[in-house]
């Protein structure tokens, strides 16, 4: 008679409904269940796919048209995905044609919003439109003058400094696909920088992370970003000198 492996349950089983993290997997003998092992490998594959995903340009342009803002497309100096991953420095600087595009659209703007593929174009494809549907009305009602939306490829966070500075904007706000994790391949990070200029580093920015339906909901994220934008203009700074004193904002 063949013995069937028995899955031994975990005392944390009741907590699984509160998190997507891999807890209470159970065990079969000295190992985890086969189903959990396969799920781990699948999640790892999804994360790798997200890194190599591409912006769905046509769908994004269609969705962004509803916001009635001019839109320009910008590329970094990274010519392809492999170069982008191997040379992070190239993802921080616009290519020559993009610099000219920025110069042609420059004016006195308050905010430049940049949409960037980052390490997960999938995150932008899935979540940037619903996030903007909540965020843009807040910025417009507050009277901020918005620069043309920028759709960027092969982009790192610091590319936003060049873009906003080139457009003449006082504040850069980049919505970028974050590095995928094993439970989150669709997360957006929102980074804002007051008085952006080439050469700034991460201590000059504020970040709202894990923006996605199963992370920080769009409404809560938009309120948090809007609060930080208002504080940045009020205090004329961003980064380590700008603290989030608003507390938790529910979605």
Describe this structure in words.
With 251 residues, the protein is of the alpha/beta class. The chain has seven helices and six strands. A six-stranded mixed β-sheet has the order 1-3-2-4-5-6, with helices on both faces. The chain is globular. The termini are far apart. Pfam families: EutC (PF05985).
Judging by the overall fold, what is the CATH architecture? 3-Layer(aba) Sandwich
> In what range is the share of β-strand residues?
15-25%
Number of helices: 7
* Helix content estimate: 25-40%
Distance between the termini: 55 Å
List how many beta strands DSSP finds.
Answer: 6
What name does CATH use for the topology?
Answer: Rossmann fold
Please name the fourth-level CATH homologous superfamily: Ethanolamine ammonia-lyase light chain (EutC)
Low-confidence stretches: none
Domain module tally: 1
Reading the helices and strands in chain order gives HHEHHEHEHEEEH
